[in-house]
Amino acid sequence: MENTTNKAEYMIRARGIFKSFQDNEVLKGISLDVCQGEVLSIIGPSGSGKSTLLRCLNHLETIDKGSIEVKGEFLVKNDTSGRAVYAPKHEMRKMLSCMGMVFQQFNLFPHMTVLENLLEAPLQVKRQTREEIQPVAEELLRKVGLYEKRDAYPSRLSGGQQQRVAIARALAMKPDIMLFDEPTSALDPELTVEVLKTMRGLAAERMTMVVVTHEMTFARDVSSHVIFMADGLIIEQGHPADIFGCPKEERTRLFLGNMLH
Amino acid sequence: MEKLTETVLSIMAGSKITLEIFVLTLAMSLPLGFFVALMRLSSVRPLAVIMDVYIWIMRGSPLMLQLLFVYFALPMVGVRFSDISAALLAFTLNYAAYFAEIFRAGIQSIPRGQYEAAKTLGLTYAQTMQRIILPQMIHRTLPPISNETINLVKDTSLIYILAMNDLLRVARTIVQRDFDMTAFFIAGLFYLVMTAVLTAIFKRMEAYYGKYDE
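The joint structure predicted for all components is written out below.
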């Protein structure tokens, strides 16, 4: 990406990320940039390392080598011997707090109601008062269309509803970047629609988003940039119109052919 | 009739010591068990190994032997306890080991996604444990905890070897004195009432902590 914008507009810059699980090298030197307001979709066959890459961005996985900058500050960078060294804990906490995450399996807190799920982090982490945060949380629930479910427990909700609550829960912390790890992969097709609609809404509000997905239509229509990954490498990247319209690489063509039938 | 009243009153007096041991052991062994479980799961290797050995000894040898050890063997090396302290020490150490294993299984049964969600929301380890993991763990471990608690009611009868006049020892004394089995039946009834009350309490707790289930 030949961007001429200044450094501050980069929300995330990753350079040369390597990550292994035991002997299995999952990421083999990945670099990417995410600019303010951009929607980056990461596509690729399963096992290509795209979920691991996303999880590295917010430190759910630790990288072996490489660097990650969040809003111009180093979350992790190589020391002189070439090994990745993370920032001190309190600095890391601050950087990670500007990223919200939505998981494939939703991961709502089952022992809390929908509203309590949204209130938990603002109350505990940001030490906001209930009076401050409750109206914000209720507004978010209205936005995802689940205000009337605010007192229900997650087990009473459909998968699609749970995922929309999970999105609202992440948004309640007012993140600058939203990370989505295959947010619709655990959902029935008819429930996928409502989650994608919520995500489209977010993109329309210029939220910076990184989305690992198998939803090719979403990647094509909503993203500003698409990365195609296979075997721990970025095979091809660019504007969705180019990637989906005239992919340059054979692997991309094969993958898209399979996905789009 | 008068004799029966006297028997009931004596046994009631005996059940005071039984209840005392029961309540105090529970109050100490539950939190201790939880911390042992955390240490057992700690990434600090030596700590985890020490807890492993502790749990092995406590679960692997008879509670009776542990009681005798605290009461008779420790004084020989100069460590002396009052009757009740000796009983409490042995019971607490023993039950904490059992509770620790229950809590460990409970903590490990919470999906990793719960920790990850908490982390991405910015919760600290302590907040995650206290607000997210612990409430779910309590819900999941209540049935086995209830089992162990009922066991403890009955295990308190072991203190008769320490010459403490608990419920069962009082009953036995009366039976041996009068050659009349009534006291045993009354003692049995006392145990049954105590366990019935406990069962009812745990049932309510399970309903309370399970209110989020479908």
